[in-house]
Amino acid sequence: MVNLVSMKHRNFRGQSWNFWLAGWTIGACLLGLVTGAQAATYTLYDGAKNTAPSLQGWITVLNGATQTVGGGATVLDTTVGGDVIQAGYSRLSQPFSLDPKVGYTLGIDVQLLKEAHASKDRAGLSVTLLGVDRWGVELAFWASDPTITDRLWVQNDGRVSGKPLFTHGEGTSFNPTTKVVHYDLAIRGSTYRLFANRNYSAPILTGALKNYSVFGPPYDRSNFLFVGDNTKSARGAFKLVKVELTNQAIGF
Q1: Could you give all domains of the chain from N- to C-terminal order, each with its CATH number?
Q2: Which of 36, 52, 64, 103 has its CA 20 to 30 A from that of 189?
Q3: How many Å from the N-terminal Cα to the C-terminal Cα in the chain?
Q4: Residue 50, SS3?
Q5: pTM of the predicted model, to two decimals?
Q6: pLDDT tens string for the chain (252 positions)?
């Protein structure tokens, strides 16, 4: 994952990309729509339905991980196989084009239940969001680390000197483990802002958008979304409650 040579760490990851496409049904699954004067919010996953993400329009790869559905959420656990298992949920198309010139926001309600990593550049839970131009951000979630205070951080894209592709970038000590947190990842122009629990006056993390497309699939795709464990160098478990997309950059 550090560079193109180390694809064994990130073949999304250790599985061919075609494997992650298996079972995909073309078309956006519009499970909820709320319209406003200037914004529309589309529900991509609703835990209250007590159905798995695969039944709500997501590509699902378990690959030996355990998935538990019920109680208003889906829990995915890759710790059962050490660092070997890669699993998660992807969407290859969205209800609207993710255009940074217009702005858009990913809303996700999630709790990191446990996590461990063998490298400071890997995490047991990642959230990847790429726009129509393939610029976006990959968030990494940690439970803790013995030497680094970050709990939430962003993968570098290798476009800045001294910051190689898929290495530990900017981060925050915000704790993602104590409860289910509502995050808003807002993107507009060349900037992202990450907000927690609808406190739009103070982002917990912000920075320049990244472009990981030099790596190849799936990072060379437009309008791409992934939630899960995509590395063989970490493991984790998380509770997914809700995922939404809004065609407006909230908090800008």
Answers
A1: 4-246 (2.60.120.200)
A2: 36
A3: 32
A4: coil
A5: 0.88
A6: 433 223 333 455 555 544 455 444 333 333 333 334 479 999 999 999 999 999 999 999 999 999 999 999 999 999 998 899 999 999 999 999 999 999 999 999 999 999 999 999 999 999 999 999 999 999 999 999 999 999 999 999 999 999 999 999 999 999 999 999 999 999 999 999 999 999 999 999 999 999 999 999 999 999 999 999 999 999 999 999 999 999 999 999
